[in-house]
Sequence to fold (414 residues):
Amino acid sequence: MKVLVIGGGAREHALCRSLSLDPAVTELHCAPGNAGIAQVATVHPVDQLDGAAVTALAAELAADLVVVGPEAPLVAGVADPLRAASVPVFGPSAEAAQLEGSKAFAKDVMAAAGVPTARSYVCTTAEEAAAALDAFGAPYVVKDDGLAAGKGVVVTSDRAAALEHAASCERVVIEEYLDGPEVSLFAITDGTTVLPLVPAQDFKRALDGDEGPNTGGMGAYSPLPWAPEGLVDEVLATVLQPTVDELRRRGTPFSGLLYAGLALTSRGTRVIEFNARFGDPETQVVLARLRTPLAGVLLAAADGTLGELEPLRWDEGAAVTVVVASEGYPAAPRTGDPIEGLDEVADEHTYVLHAGTRSGDGGEVLSAGGRVLSVTATGADIAEARERAYRGIARISLKGSHHRTDIALKAAQQ
Ligand code: AMP
Fold:
């Protein structure tokens, strides 16, 4: 099977790594990729938002499967010309990707499907926003309706700050605050059959103790020893399957990866958000535990035969990933610095996934983004996986870089 992966972050490196370990995969390509992906796949400098260019590349390579990683190309509709050209593609159409591309659309689908989520108002004026804030009270949750690369959500008790964020967005969703721990649950779907993966938890804030600004994610772990038994079955029945059924009913079936961001509140499980693709950094730990070869699973979703697949097999152990971010991330990441020690990290249980990296002229690896690396390790339990990931981090040097030191710490102590 010839596979082309679209994207160039640690999520795509994790996908490429798993695909490269799948004996069914004879050729692996990635566009645009990064310095780490280039070690396991042939990389192509193609604009990931350009559907015609991606389709031309898939045709040139005679790809048997295209896997679209990030949300931006999905929402831009890159999967559509691929499907029109009869290329099997893992990733939803532009219409179905609105589940992530518009929070108001997601709320509408959830209401129609009876999926439990925060009560909300969609507002377009300052007056509407003020009324919605007062209807729910503090803490206020204000969400930009459109894609905002993880920066569209403000949770604050400061009413003026909430109003200011609302004013900076064209259309906002204002919703009730959900308390309780968060869980990310991914499901692979072909538009009919829904195959949940294992739950994971990510860490969104930049600093230890969940302090500091929101980021794309600073680390993740799986499994969740504290999660209630039966959570996956419950979410499949109350969230994932009804959502997939509703989109099919509307004539815009969702195929690809449906990501449910959940809050386990005192009043039950609620959806915080949907994403239309694998989450980063949770993918790094979920795929680290997947034993079933990945390509066949993604292809079955692409060609509508997921119902015929054997149950997925999982490693009973744990996986932890810790993100190394560049100096100044998330506000003003500094890039272009050499990264040292990368060759000293990998062992049987530990590996480095590249996020924002590129190759320098002399073959050295340079930082090229805010999140630079995702050091991932597996172990018999969370404590062991965690210890290995941090041992790996200690061998890497990148000027001014920072990482959280408390990823999976509480879970490891349970
Ligand atoms: P999102 O981009 O929707 O995942 O939101 C980013 C983060 O904001 C989430 O991971 C939550 O921590 C927080 N958040 C979003 N919606 C709510 C809510 N209704 N109540 C509490 N926290 C929320």
The chain has 13 helices and 24 strands.
